[in-house]
Design brief:
binds pyridoxal-5'-phosphate, single chain, six-stranded antiparallel beta barrel, Lyase, Ornithine Decarboxylase, Chain A, domain 1, 368 residues, four-stranded parallel β-sheet, 28% helix, alpha/beta
Amino acid sequence: MSAIPESPPRSWAEVDLSGIRHNLAIARKLSGQGIMAVVKASAYGHGLEAVAGALEQEEITFFGVANVGEARRLSEAGVQTPIYLLGGTFPSEREEVIAHHWLPCLNTMEEARHFDQLARHGGTVVEAHLTVDTGMGRGGFLPSDAPAALEAIRSLPGIRISGLGSHLPSADEDPAFTRSQFDQFDNLVESLPRRKELKHIHLANSAGLLGYQSRTTTLARPGLLLYGVSPLREHEADLRNVMSLKSRIALIRDLPSGHGISYGRTFVTTRPTKVGTIGIGYGDGYPRTLPDHTPEVFVRGRRVPLLGRVTMDQVMADLSDCPDCCPGDEVELFGPNIPVQEVARKAGTIAWELFTGITPRVERVYSG
Ligand SMILES: *Cc1c(COP(=O)(O)O)cnc(C)c1O
């Protein structure tokens, strides 16, 4: 009996892991610092284990994850690079944090006292960083409270503070504010006693790394940049594309003039039109907020416009100017020919959300 052929994926994301390593080298060169590679949200949708595996031999100082669930996945994958928790922890998670030597950031005295108590109870010392809120408003000690908090936590025998971090809310939008934030952060760090014990000082995300200089930081925390997108448009040409979202033409049909296309019939043909149906939709994370007609996809070496609304599993494209297109042809939704930034802008969102919104139905296919 012959094997029944497996159906090819309707949509898939090609991920070039060597592109991530290339972008890491750029981040390293531009910042001149150590790197905390931000791999939260499944490495921005690229696949947590695969991306961490690709960076494991690259002398990354930390992998930055959002929460304990992601830290657990990295540990279970056998990752040896130290794991840093970018967000606060729930009380019930803290024993696990200590047991696995993940590095928590401390945002409150309650958190610090609880970690201290758990660590001492287990006969160990937990290494942690202090988070300072210089403007993000999401967590951490206010700069005015940070020196006293640091001293208080240093007096707890179950905790060793080895670093200090803060975060930038608008490094890609507000240079004046961001410059003042860098100043405030550097002044604070320079004012702290026993500064040498703070081995890891970090502030910059991708935009911060590209656009600003600090007198005190030792680490940069790039995320988006590693995945090939510059939030500042600077150095865009130096970065390599990492993810290409792809699908195939499923059907090609000739429709007459005056025929509606997709839900709501927001697009009606004004001429006989060759319409291709492509096997991807918002159920794959291709955004439904894309406006009619302006988004383009790439097929057989050209851009063609989409027609009508994005549906859950399919979109329609105008193939009238693509006489050689056939069912089965590969279509790029974003990638080297259609920048993800362009799709994000048209959809009224940002590249970060587009990447992290690509759903599990989209198979990730790795190279490099
Ligand atoms: C997500 C995140 C980053 C990475 O931000 P990018 O803009 O993607 O480079 C850095 N630091 C913290 C605290 C974050 O939450």
